[in-house]
Amino acid sequence: MGRLYLPKWGQPAFRRRPEDGAPCPVLHLTLAAPGEPLVALTRALARFGPLTRIAWTELCTQLGAERALREILAAAAAVRPGLIWMQVQGPGPLADAAYLRALRQAAGPQARLVTWTGDVTDHGAGGGITLRTAPWMLAMCEAVDLFTACHCDYPQALHDAGAAASCGFMQCGFDAELFNYRPQRLAQRGVDGLVWLASRYPTLASGERDALARLLLRELPGRLTCYGGGWAEIIGEAAAGGIDPVSSSYLYSHAPLALSISHSSVLRRYTSDRLMRIMASGGVGLVREFPDMQGLGCLDGETCLVWRTPEELVALARDWLRPARDGDRTRIRQAAWAIAHRHMTWDAAIEELAWMLHEEARRG
User: Fold this and answer.
1) Is the distance from CB of 266 to CB of 290 less than 8 angstroms?
2) What is the 3-state secondary structure (H, E, C) of 184-232?
3) pTM score, two decimals?
4) Does residue 193 have a pLDDT over 60?
5) Residues 281, 253: contact at Cβ < 8 Å?
6) How far apart are alpha carbons 247 and 239 in whole angstroms?
7) DSSP label at residue 298
8) In this structure, are residues 82 and 48 in contact, taking their beta carbons and an 8 Å threshold?
9) Is 173 within 8 Å of 276 (Cβ atoms)?
10) Whether 48 contacts 27, CB under 8 Å
11) How far apart are CA 225 and CA 348, in angstroms?
């Protein structure tokens, strides 16, 4: 049975610089297509040593799964990585224990296999974690050294079920070069109210998002602007369309309030990177409550504003949009920026991973 790692926020004892260990080649098996901007994550992983990155889902699409898997085995044999870091979201070729054993054999005995998942799709507002919903995770634990997730519930459930691998929480991160405090005023409609940067998905609690947008539009007339796809048919002129990362950072820096709702609000320490981007930009986040949010540094009234019900959100927004709250918002902006850039970057996440790997090696 493996160990359980739930690093506590803000404590240096749970972080380790990858550079403090012996350099080792890294094989990064990513979900992302080659054109996606993962510069910060790639740079953070490369702190372990020379990095080879393969977008495995894209490779499977291009070559077919069987040939793509052979290519990955060949890359592992050529690179001889000390660390294989895989992004796996669900059942599939990289979740197969037999294939993972073959991958380890190709890479060599020095390789440590680590998987990370951001999967929350089976666990909506009324959700809860049971391994019946994700048996592929338990199967993976038969073949990897460390199973990590972007919330605490999967690692806890796997550990409680006697998973062979060690399991741990590893947050997602943000790019500190793209998201930073940018206080210059934007000449854009809607920045003097509440902004919501989120696509309106056709599934995954879209009904809840629609109802919330309509409520805010009705209760705070002229103070809501939504950025992202699909909003125009729901809220008309309050929909502003898409926005690039740097412009969104400017927007968060200037807008009085920014709304943050993740796909799930029932998982311990789980938030999408939207909240991290808000805080990193010096934004004032209106955050729907989620379990152990304090474990990420999300402190109500200090680094963000927390709400539980739509009615509470409306009352909170109405209060904090008042000019009398300008000074309080500035205080939150400063604290949020400091917390995010100290503890929420991809570098911070990778240092927590390095600590877990060091503990595994130390304990044997």
Assistant:
1) yes
2) CCCCCCCCCCEEEECCCCCCCCHHHHHHHHHHHHHHCCCCEEEECCCCH
3) 0.91
4) yes
5) yes
6) 16
7) -
8) yes
9) yes
10) no
11) 32
C-alpha 316/C-alpha 304 separation (Å) is: 12
For range 104-115, the mean pLDDT: 97
Total number of residues shown for the chain: 364
The encoded tokens of residue 52 equal 């080879």
Residues 283 and 65: their CA atoms lie apart, in Å, by: 43
Check whether 8 has a pLDDT greater than 80: no
User: Rounded CA gap, 204 and 202, in Å?
Assistant: 7
Question: What would the pLDDT profile of 247-276 be if each residue is shown by its tens digit?
Answer: 899 899 999 999 999 878 888 999 989 999
Phi, psi (rounded to 5 degrees) for 159:
-65, -45
Q: Strand pairing of 4-5 and 257-260?
A: unpaired
Token pair listed for 294: 């304090």
pLDDT at residue 190, rounded to an integer: 47
Distance CA 169, CA 181 (A): 28
Indicate the SS3 state at residue 167. Answer: strand
116-134: pLDDT as tens digits: 998 665 544 444 455 555 7
| One-letter amino acid of 120 | V
* Beta partners for residue 5, in sequence order: 168
Torsion of CA 38, 353, 90, 175, to 10 degrees: -20
- State CA 141 to chain mean position distance: 21
